[in-house]
Amino acid sequence: MLFAMVIERGLPSWDRLPDAVGVWLQNAGGVAAVAIALVLLARWLQRDPHNLQYWALPPGFQPLLAILKVCLIGSALGYLAMILIMVGGRSGFRWLSLLSPRVFPQEPFRIGDWILAVSGALAMFVALTPIAFDMLTRFSWRRIWAIARLSWKESIRGRVIWVFAVMVLVFLFAGWFVKFKPEDQVRIYVLVVYWSMAPLFLITAGLLGAFSIPNDVRNNSIHTIVTKPVERFEVVAGRFLGYAALLTVGLLILSALSLIYVVRGITDEAKKESFTARVPIYGQLHFAGTKDPRKGDDVGNAFAYRSYIKGMTTRKREPFRQFAIWDFAHVPADVAQRDKDVAFEFRFDIFRLSKGVQGKGVFCTFSFVNVDKFKSIDPNLQSQELDIQVTTMKQEYELKRDAARKQWDDARKNEIDPTKLDEIEKQRDKDYRKIRLDLNIEYGIYETHAELADFHTLNVLVPAEALRHILSQNKERRQGQDAPPPALRVFLGVDVSEEAQMVGVAQYDFYLLAYERDFWQNFLKGVFGMWCTCMLVLGVAITCSTYLSGVISFLIAMFLFLAGLFTDYLREISEYRPNSGGGPLEAMIRLGGKIPLAGQLESSPTTSLVQFLDRSFSRVVGFVLNLIPDINRHDLQPYVANGFDIAWLDLLLLDNAIPVFGYLLPWAILAYYLMKFREIANPS
Questions:
Q1: Residue 684: predicted pLDDT
Q2: Alpha-carbon separation of residue 621 from 86, 460, 489, 627 (angstroms)
Q3: 287 and 387: one domain?
Q4: Does residue 398 belong to any structural domain of this protein?
Q5: For residue 661, what pLDDT is reported?
Q6: How many domains does the chain have?
Q7: Which of 21, 193, 568, 626 is deepest in the core (most CB within 10 A)?
Q8: d(C-alpha 488, C-alpha 326), whole Å
Q9: Beta-sheet pairing, 488-494 with 349-352
Q10: How confident is the model over 310-329, as a mean pLDDT?
């Protein structure tokens, strides 16, 4: 079973939205500022110096001229101040480094980041004001809708929709070549239909967007439009809306057919595995008993997604046990008020230090605790206190159980009617459970054991009544704490055995299963991510086609899409880290000199030059990365295939819709100015 996913990037959070808006203003505003500077420079270099016109504005737009000048001057002063700060910081004025922008995106905003964000916002205001003025006074949605309908009809007459019929081949013959285990049926079918539809719609979107306007210019049919009372950007907007509507309808139809293809003849194993939409609640992971509380031990795996905790042996008892700890800040009230047991699912990796026993896994213990019951706030001290409390609780349970057993044994001996013996047994079991529950409430600990299998997802069930009493109701910080105590803390420890074993964990390997929703809704929500990618390709292709030829526009759109698949790798390159081997030039020197990563390069002018060039290369990659869309965020297929719910707000809106809008807005501004100032009569 594979209920858990490998989530290498953090889940989206609304708390990061202001930071993301600030970064967007820095990037988009910086590009807008450079474009404005180039336009002003070009007008300053025109032939007639006595007739300089920096602001070619309509008469009704003149009152805003003073505001635009102030915004432009403010933006220029902000960027000039940042240049002086950077130059001064490199010239020996270390106090200026406090005003410089942050180095890593995980750091909070500095003064330099705010200067760049405000300067970018002013530049964006200057670029957007003419567009807003035209939209309010000159644009007509009726004309845009007419061009959108024309684009729709042209696509249908051009038999573009026949391209979608290729999916029929997948429905007919995919089963001949796709082999799977019964429990993997849904996962494999989802993978097949998603990876079949994605290239089909992406290539179609690129071709439609790239060749529409160039073909109109080449055929001189665009003159029929622009000679009428139609704004040029209305042509761009109408083309985009028409093609977007066509792709949306086609995607919905094929998604419905694909859903029928996926759900037909599903096996019982597949239904249990992935034919659902789990709503997980994740906790924050940290460790106790390890060198670093943020991570466990490193076993040398190249895939460093998980870190490991080690169990003790019967031959050697160490003073401190290692624990993986998950803190759940919040548990929904309706989950805690359930009558049924609450499920916690997990999927861990086993790193064997010995062969162990054939056919057996590694035994671990989960301890669900109320942190208010601990005397200390230090997780390391809490882990030691946990062992003491569990031992005391077990001893007290055994004493109370033995006393209750003696009473029930006497009652059974004195019972004459044999038909009531079963009732006595049931009542005895209820008393045992009540004794255990009372101790769980008293000590604030519920402990359960599980046998782990390597990369198999299992679950542990916690009685709802025990969970309700374990949950912490205290939201006030204790002395020395940086944050309020979690509602629930879970300790994972490897049981003592004859041979030591290690268990690898990651933050998203363990979660509380809050709800389960319908698969078909989740399938269609996953298609929304594909739709966002299609809109990205379509928008970029149409923007490029306003000035470039169809072939070049298509190649640019496809290049940006392919580059967007490697944004995670490019982001690692842009974050220059000398402790990780440096950049490409330093890597070449290390390979040539057989110098390991732990070794230090000798101090020399050559080394300084190489590191300077590597840092410059990383910054260039960082600038280029701002132009590349993050395609991986729109790949929602793993959620659907593994049976995890795609949240409406966190994933669809925050992580898909808002980034698409933020990425396409600068391209729309660029399309407005390119289309406005291009020569329509020139077909090239």
A1: 47
A2: 19, 46, 41, 10
A3: yes
A4: no
A5: 95
A6: 4
A7: 193
A8: 8
A9: unpaired
A10: 83
